[in-house]
């Protein structure tokens, strides 16, 4: 497996040139870092990724995490790496200073996590879940619980988990049976959970489980669920560690990939009940948990970008070094010169950069929702985050699977051999479309909730923004100036066609939600794909505009030329098929239900 090179130039470009991080307003709680500070942070995080985490990726895949004597042992090197992560203060980056964070922007945080996820996904899953748990506790934990548990969770000395799934309750949260009984100022929980990532490990001295359970006597279904904090070790008022709680791992799952990350069956209450503290109100647990899930969904979507970047780097190095076949002359050439290999590499590059741009658009909206001076602007930005979250999670994770598959194809037969290491990226990527709600659930959320909750206002506002971009790009081509204007005009023309399809699809779905909801949901997955492709193309177009401006100002940096070339490739090769998704979006329901279930067998 080749070394990982953090894409620092690309990330600096997104955070400081295309993104708004240096111009974001600061406060006593939130920092507004300079370009110089941002660059220094990116470089330090890149060193952690390349020098500390990346060397662990292959050995973690081979040896995995182990459950021994009722405790989980992580792969060799993970404990030292986690200590370096905590000592560097990395876990606290995006959170307000008032609760122990560093107050840095989410756009910067996303760039950091991409590097760590690409370097060693199985390691990064632990701090990813801690980030989501911090969001949940900071908003919903009672003051005494927050003061005891939040500081060390923010520092990373303790870690967090998310406990939803049970054997009979996967996506159907209403089927959860975990029981919670009131006992003074706390509750006693009993039951079991499955698929719990980092439910036990040897990296941190305490693990804080965020758990969905049903208080005795609560209503059935999701209306009767409450959310609880259940620590592995209880904590006294002075924050000292106390007794081991009644929660333990009972089995470790054997998985296709991410072998270094322990995925566990957890048992609660075998010896009288695990002590838990309620987060939020009783019977409002799903809303509380979604605070955690939505944060995790952005970082999980980013995992697709990270693995795509890692796989692209490895495929490119292989293609440049593998000499096979002849080119335009009689001489043997590296396979990177063959048109189909070049097509695959450019597709990988363009799709990765589009997915990354989409994720950073969501992060920028998240920053505005928390930092804008105008409350109305904060509310508008928050609605955009809600709209983009399922798109980022699903589109970016699907991109990770597609790009890692292409990377394997670039390697030819060697890609199917484990020794090359490329197969690991493909295996690791395959879980990401399943994590945090399958991508079909994300599509249903996008169409059934996010479009419907405001009559499509947030979606239409985003489409109008894309429309403005495309008109500006097309107008540059109309001047027949050639050169950069022609390149940008090509991008604008392709964006116009795809955006028109998105406008039509959005209007059709909003109407169908009222008249025939099943027809709307039948088109949800292709609609999400269309959204991701168009918005990703829009993100690339924004980057191309910035790059063209830098070139006009006199820059000879080939990076900027590459940004324009990548945006053009995406526009010419990937955007046109996206417009054809309008048909599957609007005409999907009859085909889906044209065969009765009992006749589906061959």
Short description:
It is built from 19 helices and 14 strands. With 602 residues, it is of the alpha+beta class. A hairpin with a 2-residue loop joins strand 4 and strand 5.
Account of the 3D structure:
With 602 residues, the chain is α+β, with helices and mostly antiparallel strands. It folds into 3 domains: 8-138, Acyl-CoA dehydrogenase/oxidase, N-terminal domain (Butyryl-Coa Dehydrogenase, subunit A, domain 1); 143-288, Butyryl-CoA Dehydrogenase, subunit A, domain 2; 442-591. It has 19 helices and 14 strands. Strands 4-5-12-7-6 form a 5-stranded mixed β-barrel. The chain has a two-stranded antiparallel sheet with strand order 1-2. Strand 1 and strand 2 (71-73) form a beta hairpin. The two termini are 42 Å apart. The model has no long low-confidence stretch (mean pLDDT 94).
Q: How many whole angstroms does the radius of gyration measure?
A: 24 Å
Q: Which residues sit in consecutive blocks of at least 5 with pLDDT less than 50?
A: none
What distance lies between the first and last C-alpha atoms, to the nearest angstrom? 42 Å
In the sheet with the most strands, the strands line up as 4-5-12-7-6
Structural class: alpha+beta
Strand content: 5-15%
Q: How many individual domains?
A: 3
What is the helical fraction, as a range of percent?
55-70%
């Amino acid at each position: 497996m080749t070394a990982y090179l953090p894409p620092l130039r690309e990330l600096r470009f997104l955070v400081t040139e295309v993104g708004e991080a240096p111009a974001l307003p600061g406060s006593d709680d939130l920092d507004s870092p300079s370009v110089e500070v941002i660059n220094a942070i990116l470089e330090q995080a890149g060193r952690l990724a390349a020098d500390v985490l990346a060397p662990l990726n292959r050995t973690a895949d081979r040896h995995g995490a182990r459950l021994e004597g009722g405790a989980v042992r992580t792969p060799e090197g993970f404990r030292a790496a986690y200590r370096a992560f905590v000592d560097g203060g990395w876990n606290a980056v995006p959170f307000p200073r008032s609760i122990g964070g560093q107050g840095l922007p989410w756009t910067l945080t996303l760039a950091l996590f991409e590097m760590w996820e690409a370097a060693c996904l199985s390691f990064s899953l632990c701090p990813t879940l801690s980030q989501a748990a911090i969001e949940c506790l900071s908003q919903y934990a009672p003051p005494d619980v927050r003061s005891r548990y939040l500081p060390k969770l923010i520092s990373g000395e303790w870690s967090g988990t998310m406990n939803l799934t049970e054997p009979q309750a996967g996506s159907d949260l209403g089927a959860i049976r975990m029981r919670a009984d009131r006992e003074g100022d706390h509750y006693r929980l009993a039951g079991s959970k499955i698929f719990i990532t980092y439910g036990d490990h040897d990296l941190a001295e305490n693990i804080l489980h965020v758990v969905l359970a049903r208080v005795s006597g609560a209503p059935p279904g999701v209306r009767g669920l409450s959310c609880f904090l259940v620590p592995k070790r209880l904590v006294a008022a002075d924050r000292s560690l106390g007794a081991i709680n009644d929660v333990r791992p009972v089995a470790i799952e054997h998985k296709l990939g991410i072998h270094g990350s322990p995925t566990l069956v957890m048992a609660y209450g075998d010896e009288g009940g695990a002590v838990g503290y309620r987060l939020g109100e009783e019977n409002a647990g799903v809303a509380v948990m979604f605070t955690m899930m939505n944060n995790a969904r952005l970082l999980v979507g980013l995992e697709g970008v990270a693995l795509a970047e890692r796989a692209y780097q490895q495929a490119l190095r292989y293609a440049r070094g593998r000499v096979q076949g002849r080119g335009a002359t009689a001489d043997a050439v590296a396979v990177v010169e063959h048109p189909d290999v070049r097509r695959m590499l450019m597709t990988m590059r363009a799709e990765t950069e589009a997915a990354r741009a989409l994720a950073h658009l969501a992060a920028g909206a998240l920053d505005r929702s928390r930092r804008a001076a105008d409350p109305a602007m904060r509310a508008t930005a928050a609605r955009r985050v809600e709209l983009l979250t399922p798109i980022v999670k699903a589109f970016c994770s699907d991109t990770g699977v597609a790009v890692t598959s292409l990377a394997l194809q670039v390697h030819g037969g060697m890609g199917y051999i484990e020794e090359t290491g490329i197969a690991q990226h493909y295996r690791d990527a395959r879980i990401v479309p399943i994590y945090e709600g399958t991508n079909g659930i994300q599509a249903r959320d996008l169409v059934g909730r996010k479009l419907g909750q405001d009559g499509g206002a947030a979606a239409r506002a985003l489409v109008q923004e894309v429309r403005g971009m495309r008109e500006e790009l097309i107008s540059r081509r109309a001047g027949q100036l050639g050169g950069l204007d022609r390149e940008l005009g090509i991008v604008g023309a392709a964006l116009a066609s795809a955006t028109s399809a998105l406008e039509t699809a959005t209007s059709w779905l909003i109407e169908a939600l009222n008249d025939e909801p099943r027809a709307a949901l039948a088109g949800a997955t292709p609609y999400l794909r269309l959204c991701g492709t168009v918005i990703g193309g829009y993100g690339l177009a924004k980057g191309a505009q910035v790059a063209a401006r830098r070139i006009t100002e006199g820059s000879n940096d080939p990076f900027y030329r590459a940004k324009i070339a990548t945006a053009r490739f995406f526009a010419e090769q990937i955007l046109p098929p996206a417009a054809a998704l309008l048909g599957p979006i609007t005409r999907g329901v009859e085909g889906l239900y044209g065969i009765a279930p009992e006749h589906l067998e061959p």
